[in-house]
Amino acid sequence: MKTSLVPLLAAVSAANATVPCLRAPKCSAGKGSVEYSKTVPDQAEFPLTKVDVCYDDTSIHITFTALEETNFYFNESQGTNDPIYEYEVMEAFIYQGTNDPQTYLEFEVNPNNATFQAFIHNPSKVRASGRPFDTFYVAQPLVDGLTAETTLDKEAQTWTSSATIPLGLFNVDNGKARGTEWRMNFFRTVVAPDTFPDQLLGAWNPTNESNFHMTPFFGKVTFI
Predict the structure, then answer these.
(1) Exposed e or buried b per residue across 118-152, where buried means at least 16 C-beta atoms within 10 angstroms of its C-beta
(2) Distance CA 83, CA 195 (A)
(3) Is the pTM of this model over 0.85?
(4) Confidence of residue 15 (pLDDT cuts 50, 70, 90)
């Protein structure tokens, strides 16, 4: 039987990935912050992007800030759980635990405050060709308490989105988040009308190929 070495090499390389760490406090005590300015996968210059993370008794709070933004490009016809990732978005992939996950939440928001939220089942951990890869949508995010609020400042070339993500989605009971450990990665896509659909990709911990769904690259986050 003929076997391709490409998925195997990608998995081996991913397994050897080094990952960054973040300590995120309760929101009443401050925020844990990261920033990134490198492309995926070649780590060239990328528009500066910041992410702040904290938690309270019921939710994770993430504030995404896109700087050096010139396009603010989105599809006005798109709404909840539409493929907003084809345009400009900021994203968080989130898993409660310490291992490289097979299943995790993918959360995205665009400059129009449309959101995409789904649990991704990715048994290969690298979205390997020919392996299962499935999407389980959070169909009623507002009912579940998953919200976002987005503001645009075109003069300052900035857009910011503050997201609230319930701890219960990860089976963390209210008031029990302190001391929990997580795996996360943060992403941003940049594209303009004249370059669409070719996107520039950026990440907190850049993967080694143009593929965000590589969980060995997820950073380590501790709620303190």
Answers:
(1) bbbebebbbbbeeeeeeeeebeebeeeebebebeb
(2) 18
(3) yes
(4) low
